[in-house]
Every structure is written in structure tokens, then in C-alpha cells.
Amino acid sequence: MRYAQLVMGPAGSGKSTYCSAIQQHAASENKIIDVVNLDPAAEYFDYNPLVDIRELIHLDDVMEDDELRFGPNGGLVFCMEYIIENSSWLEEKLGDVDDDYVIFDCPGQIELYTHMTIIRQLITMLQKLNFRICGVFLIDSQFMIDGSKFLSGTMAALSVMINLELPHINILSKMDLLSKSAKKQLDKYLEPDPYSLLADMEKDPWNEKYRNLSEAIGRLIEDYSLVRFYPLNIKDEENMADIKLTIDNIIQYGEDADVKIRDFDEPIEDDDKDINYDINT
Ligand SMILES: Nc1nc2c(ncn2[C@@H]2O[C@H](COP(=O)(O)OP(=O)(O)OP(=O)(O)O)[C@@H](O)[C@H]2O)c(=O)[nH]1
Ligand SMILES: [Mg+2]
Hints:
Belongs to the GPN-loop GTPase family. By secondary structure, this protein is α/β, with parallel strands linked by helices. 45% of the residues lie in helices and 15% in strands. The strands form 2 sheets. Strands 3-2-4-1-5-6-7 form a 7-stranded parallel β-sheet, sandwiched between helices. It has a two-stranded antiparallel ribbon with strand order 8-9. The radius of gyration is 23 Å and the shape is globular.
């Protein structure tokens, strides 16, 4: 079995930073995690990628092509489709390794995850390569600190979960940037109760008018009762360890590992009472 995290989220939500932080965290525990850059438009990341999709196709090539004439958004979708059509390139680069752990750093175009099928196709391809995958959806915590924004972020996360049908975890990134009062506000939402969120929103005249609609959305979120967010502060090692453990449990990483045993001699029985163990490690 092979293990993978598919790191997704809106533009600038901290995907590449998360990939590199998780890689470094694993290295501090003497574990190797590889990162694959799947963003054909990436300009900067501070990990050394195992595979860099820009070697296959770069957004600039598509945008500069006189026949294609794509802008940045259409161009990115074109690049992603090109990757799927040429998936043998990626398959070859990923090789046929057993028990490896790879994080895929995806592009920041939300449509890819909420309703398009490209990422679904990519997932199928990775599953054929024997990867057990956890979807990791990052949302910048700074955009989640009031009721309506939290509801809209929750809806985005729910769309991704339904569209990709993958074991999934939602992460609130950049917690280190929140003020104390913003953290307090966010705490209220971390066990999302749509009704208390709606009560918060009622003060706004627009929300007053669309109360029934907001209530229906709240009910939808509650009915699925799947959307939960894990706050992440990459500067807090304990927090990083918790998130990694949660994901590792989801993909059952480490469960197939051989149990480490210590050799020891049979106990030397003395008078049937005292038992001495001679332990050789
Ligand atoms: N303080 C702080 N800054 C962060 C964190 N994560 C990301 N950033 C900053 O946010 C900006 C965007 O981070 P990236 O990791 O490039 O985000 P991304 O989601 O990969 O962006 P795209 O690939 O362009 O969609 C950079 O300036 C990062 O330094 C974090 O946890 N804390
Ligand atoms: Mg990135």
C-alpha cells in the first residue's frame, strides 16, 4: 500500500507552506515524506519536489501559445486536463514503490475541487497506483471569523467532500496570524452549530430578508453533519503532530508496519517463585 495526502484549497490558503511544514515535521521524526508539485502555475515553494508537474506543462506555455490563447484561469484548467491525458508521465515519475508517503500540492483554483471532474480523475489514477488518499482541504482562518463567511467556507468544504468522495479533513490554516479576539470568535464555530451561526447573522438586514434560505442551508449542513474544521498553527509542533496523526489514522498509515519485537530469553525459573528475565535488546 502507498499513502497520500491531496492538499487542496482556495488560492493562497497556505497549501504549499503546509506541504513543506508537514515534510519537515515528518523529517524531525525520521520519517520520509515526498512532496509532488501538481500546480502548473506555481512560482514559489520551499520544498524540494519529488515530481514537478511544470516539467510536463507550465501555465506560461499555455498562455503564450498563439493558438490556445488562454487566460490564467482557463489555462490552468487546460493544464490539469493535459496532465490527466498524459497521466503515464506522472505514473512513471511516481514509480512502483511500496509503503511510501507522498503529499500532492494542488493548484489554488477552487472550481477544480467543487464541481469539476479533473481531480476526481486524478484520484482514480492515484488509486490505481495503490495510493490510499486523504483529501486535505485548507481554508485561511482569517476568512472564517464571522458567521456568514464561516457558513460559506463550510459550504465550499461540503461541495469538495461530496464532489471528490474521498476520506477528507478540513483545516483552518494560518492560525498564528489570528488575534486573540478573532481566535475566541472562531472557537465558537469549531463545533459548527448552524443555528447559532444563523442567530449571529440575523443582525444584518440582508440576512433578515433571506432568513428562510439561510435556515435551509443551515439544515443542509447539519443533515450531512460531516463538516468539521481542524485549526492549524504550523508554528506549534504539537498541533502539527495532532493533525498528522488524524490524517495517518484516516489513511491507516503505519497500521501495516511490522510490530517491532525485542528478543529475550525464556525466564529462568528459580524456586518457582522468583522469575528472572534476561533481556537482550
Ligand atoms: N503566518 C503564516 N503565513 C502563512 C501560512 N501559510 C501560508 N502563509 C503565507 O501565505 C502566503 C501563501 O502561502 P502558500 O503556501 O503559497 O499558499 P498556496 O495555497 O500554496 O497558494 P497558491 O498555490 O498560490 O494557491 C505566503 O506568503 C505564505 O508565506 C501560515 O501558516 N502562517
Ligand atoms: Mg501553492
